[in-house]
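Entry 0007
Protein: Sarcosine oxidase subunit gamma
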Amino acid sequence: MSEPATTPTPAFLWRPRGAWEGIAKIGGHGASADAPGIRLTLREGQGLATIVAADGREADLRAILAERFGLSVPEAGATAFDGERGLVWSAPGQWLAVSPTRQGFDALPAALQGVAAVTDQSDGRALVRVSGPKARTLLAKGVAIDLHPRAFGPGRAAVTSIAHIGVQFWQRDAGPTYDIAVARSFAGSFWGWLEHAAAEFGYEVA
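Output (structure tokens):
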């Protein structure tokens, strides 16, 4: 007796989509008289998770993260990174954990049970790196924060808004280089502002 025919499920229906897919176009854009003043690097495949300390357990949280994961918990408005892995302050008792891979913090929920709530944000946020000689000038167009090196330098972080869109961003180095995280549902709107603001400097998307 023959087996009943089945209709295969189209593979494309199950293919994961990057947060910037269909939104950002790789290559050079905007003013081209000189070398691009802005480089936008799409940070796909990163692992992101929010960590919220339970009442009265912040000291325990710091100890576990240091001993089991080698992570330092930054103070308010700061970051603590070792390469591409680290923590970004988000609010009192709250941090964003960043890993180069989505599997980087798989062990966090079990390790922090009863000490902190851990929520995977890897698919919930879009992450872009902004660098180049005009990076600070670009962000100053939309951020209501003093970005002068004396006020906001490497290792600093903020939760604010750009073009009425909530963002979390932090400065990686004195280049300057910034990482910006935005809710994935607002990625298209945010990118519209970003490419418009970067056009006068010339920008490269990588």
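Curator remark: Residues 158 and 169 are 6 Å apart (CA to CA). The mean pLDDT is 91.
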